[in-house]
Amino acid sequence: MNLMNDEKHFNTLSNYYKTKYGKKVFKISLNGNFKCPHSGCIFCNGSGDYAGDKNKSIKDQFDDVKNMMEKKWDDAYYIVYFQANTNTFAPLNELKAKYEEALSLSDKIIGISIATRCDSISDECLEYLKELNKKTFVQIELGLQTIHEKTSTLINRGHTLNQFDECIKRLKEAKISIVVHIINGLPYETFDMMIDTAKYVGKLGIDGIKIHMLYVMKNTKLLELYNKEKFHILTRDEYVKIVATQLEYLPLSMVIHRLTGDSAKDLLVEPIWSLKKFVVLNEIDKYMRKNNVYQGDKIKED
């Protein structure tokens, strides 16, 4: 695999899309106004507003993003992305109606990505996704965040690692593409704990990963905990080193969808350095080049 098409030391999503489809591919985030079956992770404010206006129709949300993106790329493919909250938590007829409406909006749509939880994919939903995957590209994004039970309990994830593993198994058997989310900087996690989470994900045989920095946002229980206990917030340099090291334990076949995330400026309390997203990404690139670090470097050593 040539990782150097875009001069990175890891398998970037843009390079993957260009290789597979021959042109730019971008996701159009949609808000299907789905709920969450869980009482809520402490880092989540529950709004889902970053993923589209739930008061607008699926078509209007799609058109809003498509029209903006086409100003930059007038010849591209789209993946419709149900992002906000738990997007398999609804009756099957509602899921089918929203998914299939979204997929019908343009002949340039090449697939659908669905963000959800490992404990929220019913047998009938999985069977439907398996059939849909025969007609178009289907990708499931699963939040794991951490493999460490103590942290998982603290942040109120509401599912076990065994439940996550079982879901991965079922999705792989259905031949559905899987992307897993992890979070660095969770309260009281050490460097080694964060690396162990990446090692674990690297051995799952999945398709992609999204790596996020923990954001302390307004209107969350995490902010209450932070104000009370002042747990350590990673510095930018710490985050850069952690991500670069994590990449060394991920196989080259795994596509790196994200190395950091986005937080609304008006909601963010910490870390303020994360607002300069492109600076963070550039620092990761610089660190990897300076230290001759590549994705997958340490897999044989482990």
Offer a concise description of the structure.
The protein is α/β, with parallel strands linked by helices and 302 residues long. The protein has ten helices and nine strands. The strands form two sheets. It has a seven-stranded parallel sheet with strand order 1-2-3-4-5-6-8, sandwiched between helices.
Written overview of the protein:
By secondary structure, the chain is of the alpha/beta class. It has a single domain, classed as TIM Barrel. Helix content is 36%, strand content 17%. The strands form two sheets. A seven-stranded parallel sheet has the order 1-2-3-4-5-6-8, with helices on both faces. The chain has a two-stranded antiparallel ribbon with strand order 7-9. Strand 2, helix 3 (92-103) and strand 3 form a beta-alpha-beta unit. Helix 7 packs parallel to helix 9 (236-248) and helix 9 packs across helix 10. The protein starts with 12 loop residues before the first helix and ends in a 12-residue tail after the last helix.
* Beta-strand segment tally: 9
The fourth-level CATH homologous superfamily is Aldolase class I
CATH topology: TIM Barrel
Low-confidence segments? none
Radius of gyration: 19 Å
Q: Sheet with the most strands? A: 7 strands, parallel
Order of helices and strands: HEHEHEHEHHEHEEHHEEH
Instruction: Give the % helix.
Output: 25-40%
> What is the 3D shape?
globular
Strand order of the largest sheet: 1-2-3-4-5-6-8
